[in-house]
């Protein structure tokens, strides 16, 4: 068990002592930060130089900057963060309610609407009133170098910032309001990069990929270099639906398809190809790799594969995250070794995260969604569902207790409100179930319609999160539909076949079946075996652990927290639970170990 930070960084010629124990000018290797308790990190975004913003809790942020104390920010309680993005000098925060908030070193490039040029908002988070005044609901935000891009009211594109507006020959480029950008199609997504200088990409309702802006080095991928693309122009050879993600640096762009293939274009030392390309070209070194994550800085790029292999290129000499890479060709992808701390998570999917800024790159573990990741997998597997919702022929299998826990309605009530008089379609049903299972709001408008039909408050409050709902469900013994039988007979005797005696030798721990299915690989295997024989509502635990230890473990499945008192024999329980990660096949190893460490400290155990 360790108390290591899960946040590592690399890459700058600046002094890193404010977040690490190192005193060197350069840190070419991944270096552990002294930022502890980072298992709750949701996202990290970087500004210019050594400053970065960390999103930890639904409405809380932490800001780190050299020669400054750490700052903590909290949005109003009724606001929940949806995303945060950055340029070199500005951070923007988007909330689930469609509002935008800012933190800015200054507003010299006009990225933040209606703020004065030299106004700093680092003392507090500033609400950006422009969008509310114009009756615009902001669905998503992206930033480039000196530019902000906003998808509003579902399909309208707005742009702010001097760099982009000046290049658009807009006489009002010094104005403080975003300008609408005409697109002949409805916009669905926006892509850029926090160091992308005056250019961006969008996908459309008609399944096209468009580009717009500065094309000095062929970074738009339209077959030539030079000039400025004044209006959004289609990029050939790619459909919008094929794009997993796309991100750009100062003068290059990297595109990842849904199949994990990696393409580059633009400046030769940065596009991953080693030669200038003005169309998106498959990067040979990654041809057989399925890439699932992408991060770009000014010139550096990191990609992570589905097997948690890390590759990078474009780093300045001597600043690759591992020493061996510094002798390789920095213009094309080189494999980068992960720190030892991360090797235990190589089999875990969607946990390792990467991020790049102008002078620093980050590697960290994402524990924010361990519960929602577990439930996402359960939902997609459609295993052991006990009911269905939907119209005839379009029913979707679900887990009854989870649905009723999140909505405080019965399955029958939901079925009647959504699928009888004016039934919602399958797409809207799936949009609703994504929120149920893993708190994802993929279509704000459709989810609001569904909530209105169910007569639920929208948007959901911070008290109606997945974590809080599941923690509350632990107390609902009446709805628990499964039992774990624990042998309380200390004697090693032959099993008695008499049912009365057998009942007397066991105690029952009530639990919700879907919780066991979602949180433990061991119980999933048990259910697979048991359900092949009969449809029982109980299973026996053979671990020989005390019933107190198992009760604490089951509660942890609901709450992600281990709690105990002195009368529960903490030393015995910690000892019994120390092998639980491996034995019960838990995904969130670091969080569970940290919880046990807290208990050790609380009761001064060795």
Automatic annotation (TrEMBL):
<dbReference type="InterPro" id="IPR009091">
    <property type="entry name" value="RCC1/BLIP-II"/>
</dbReference>
<dbReference type="InterPro" id="IPR051553">
    <property type="entry name" value="Ran_GTPase-activating"/>
</dbReference>
<feature type="domain" description="BTB">
    <location>
        <begin position="480"/>
        <end position="566"/>
    </location>
</feature>
<dbReference type="Pfam" id="PF00651">
    <property type="entry name" value="BTB"/>
</dbReference>
<dbReference type="InterPro" id="IPR000210">
    <property type="entry name" value="BTB/POZ_dom"/>
</dbReference>
<feature type="repeat" description="RCC1">
    <location>
        <begin position="207"/>
        <end position="259"/>
    </location>
</feature>
<dbReference type="Pfam" id="PF00415">
    <property type="entry name" value="RCC1"/>
</dbReference>
<protein>
    <submittedName>
        <fullName>E3 ubiquitin-protein ligase</fullName>
    </submittedName>
</protein>
<dbReference type="InterPro" id="IPR000408">
    <property type="entry name" value="Reg_chr_condens"/>
</dbReference>
<dbReference type="InterPro" id="IPR011333">
    <property type="entry name" value="SKP1/BTB/POZ_sf"/>
</dbReference>
